């Protein structure tokens, strides 16, 4: 067997393997959406449970640029409660992931005493959110269902 035939056989095997691994993409996107969605939603619930502490933290600890601390607290909490729900169900997946990506960035910028481990968690969440922004929410989304219904009606 000459070198070109060997390379062709390796390429064919690799393509088969890659096609099988690609079948996991919708599940990976679903897991990413659920994981990051839960993190942010739980954070929003924590803020709601003790609103006085939340306002204190936004006034004293978090230094959100350009916004009064009360407005930042309301907007941040609302974003952490609404956007994760949209992300998990897959409604406006890309926009909700992008919104949470910016919430994530503001959280890192606003909290000056963030530890290395916490910083790395934010990096992970940001990477997972960017994945959803780029690839969409995947197969298991309301977006896909709605788009399917719209395209069927146009036919």
Please provide a written account of the structure.
- It is a single chain.
- The protein is mainly alpha-helical and 155 residues long.
- It has one domain (26-154).
- The chain has helices at 3-22, 25-49, 51-60, 69-89, 93-110, 116-135, 142-154.
- The chain is elongated, with a radius of gyration of 21 Å.
In short:
With 155 residues, the chain is mainly α. The protein has helices at residues 3-22, 25-49, 51-60, 69-89, 93-110, 116-135, 142-154.
Question: What is the H/E string?
Answer: HHHHHHH
Counting DSSP E segments of at least 2 residues, the number of strands comes to 0
Q: Stretches where pLDDT falls below 50 for ≥5 residues?
A: none
Biggest beta-sheet profile: none
Evaluate the radius of gyration: 21 Å
Strand content: under 5%
Output the structural class: mainly alpha
Basic shape: elongated
Number of domains: 1
- Terminal-residue CA separation: 51 Å
In which range does the helix fraction lie?
A: over 70%
Mean pLDDT: 92
Number of helices: 7
What topology emerges from the helices and strands here?
Blueprint: H1 3-22, H2 25-49, H3 51-60, H4 69-89, H5 93-110, H6 116-135, H7 142-154
Helix pairs in contact: 2-4, 2-6, 3-4, 4-5, 5-6
Write out key terms for the chains shown.
mainly alpha; 7 helices; single chain; 155 residues
């Amino acid at each position: 067997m000459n070198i070109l035939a060997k390379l062709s056989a390796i390429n064919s095997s690799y393509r088969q393997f890659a096609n099988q691994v690609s079948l996991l993409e919708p599940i990976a996107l679903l897991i990413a959406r659920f994981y990051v969605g839960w993190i942010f939603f739980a954070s929003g619930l924590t803020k709601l449970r003790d609103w006085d502490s939340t306002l204190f933290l936004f006034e004293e600890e978090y230094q959100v640029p350009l916004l009064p601390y009360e407005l930042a607290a309301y907007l941040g909490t609302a974003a952490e409660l609404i956007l994760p729900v949209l992300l998990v169900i897959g409604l406006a997946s890309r926009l909700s992931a992008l919104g949470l990506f910016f919430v994530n960035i503001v959280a890192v910028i606003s909290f000056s005493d963030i530890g290395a481990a916490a910083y790395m968690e934010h990096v992970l969440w940001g990477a997972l959110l960017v994945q959803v922004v780029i690839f969409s929410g995947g197969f298991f989304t309301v977006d896909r269902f709605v788009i399917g219904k719209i395209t069927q009606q146009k036919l």
